[in-house]
Specification:
Shape: elongated
Helix content: 10-25%
Number of strands: 17
Length: 362
């Protein structure tokens, strides 16, 4: 079990909404937590209906020997403290463990041969406090846990009947590893990861980290004092933003990943744009025209003032473009435009587009 990776995923994604920028208790958006995976005391939601729940239930598939050791971890926020309840067991042993108001249980059932269905549930048994961002981690020391998101064909039918309520199990760890599953209350892919450039948890993981960090730095001294006087998680976020060196801020400015086709596959195999031949000429009354040729404009529509102002003007074709729907557009620069040089530099406002039907020979 890669605890460091699991911790980063939990603190960067699963705790989202626990605190939100500007991280001040007096801010309206922090008056009430808006986290995923909250397990409420059953007495508070009984008979209320709606999506609120007091427990989650997760089923997953495992293939391996019967004597495999299994580690089960339930984790959640109680007030602002990360709290864990855990135990180790085997396929043959159903287990239940209680810590305060949290009860986590495990059981397994043989499906066929060496294929087993594992069940993990976490329940709030208390009367007053909620378990926030509750999730579970299951790890095995032998055999393999099977992806429910993309199950092998031989077990797809078995995967389809696994019941998951309140969480969804995904493989976690190094890609291609099958020893650990994270049952998360939000939608994640198998093998989720945090960007290497990330400085850490901001509890706003769907925000752009660079922008959010810069906004934290713009808080007034009075606002920062309020953040520092509140809980430790908010104080840590502020201190982290203030302590980032400039070279790390530059890394947050963005990077490009994944643009190359996998396994050396050429772009043209999947890029339909690359497969289309370029349009270099248009035909006007039987005469082929290309970039650099002079034309006269006859706008066919009256959609804006330019359709009237440019009627009859002469222009030079600056380029012939084709959009994704295969429509051809002729880019022109007007002969008597004082800003013609800007049009030749492809600047907006001095480069105009017309269809081939709106162009004639001068």
């Amino acid at each position: 079990m890669n605890r460091d990776l699991i911790n980063r995923i939990a603190r960067s994604v699963l705790y989202e909404g626990y605190l939100l920028y500007p991280y001040r208790p007096s801010a309206l958006k922090n008056a009430r937590r808006c986290t995923f995976g909250t397990l409420y005391p059953e007495s508070q939601i009984a008979g209320a209906g709606g999506p609120d729940r007091s427990n989650f239930h997760s089923e997953m598939l495992f293939r391996g020997p019967a004597d495999t050791k299994i580690s089960v971890l339930g984790r959640y926020l109680l007030d602002e403290e990360e709290t864990e309840v855990a135990f180790e067991t085997t396929l043959a042993e159903s287990r239940r463990n209680q810590l305060g108001d949290a009860e986590i249980s495990f059981s397994s059932a043989l499906v066929r041969d060496d294929l087993h269905r594992l069940t993990v549930s976490l329940r709030n048994t208390g009367d007053s406090q909620s378990l926030i961002s509750a999730h579970a981690v299951v790890s095995v020391d032998a055999g393999e846990l099977i992806s429910l998101t993309d199950p092998p064909a031989g077990v797809a039918a078995d995967a389809s009947v696994c019941r998951n309520e309140g969480v969804w199990p995904v493989l976690i760890g190094q890609p291609s590893s099958h020893d650990t599953v994270l049952a998360a209350p939000i939608i994640l892919p198998d093998y989720p990861e945090i960007a290497r450039e990330s400085a850490g948890d901001l509890c706003d993981a769907t925000e752009i980290e660079e922008i959010l960090t810069l906004r934290i730095l713009t808080l007034t001294d009075q606002e920062k004092a309020e953040v520092r006087a509140s809980e430790s998680r908010a104080r840590h976020i502020l201190e982290q933003a203030e302590g980032l060196p400039m070279e790390h801020m530059l890394k947050l400015h963005g990077t490009i990943r994944g643009l190359a086709p996998s396994l050396g596959e050429p772009w043209s195999n999947w890029d339909t744009w690359a497969n289309r031949p370029p349009v270099d000429t248009i035909d006007v009354n039987g005469t082929p025209l290309k970039a650099g040729d002079r034309v006269r404009l006859r706008p066919g529509g009256r959609s804006d003032i330019f359709d009237i102002a440019l009627e009859g003007r002469t222009a030079v074709i600056a380029g012939i473009e084709q959009d994704f729907e295969n429509n051809v557009h002729v880019a022109v620069v007007i002969d008597d435009d004082p800003g013609r040089d800007l049009g030749e530099m492809r600047q907006t406002g001095h480069r105009f587009f017309f269809s081939p039907e709106e162009i004639e020979l001068p």
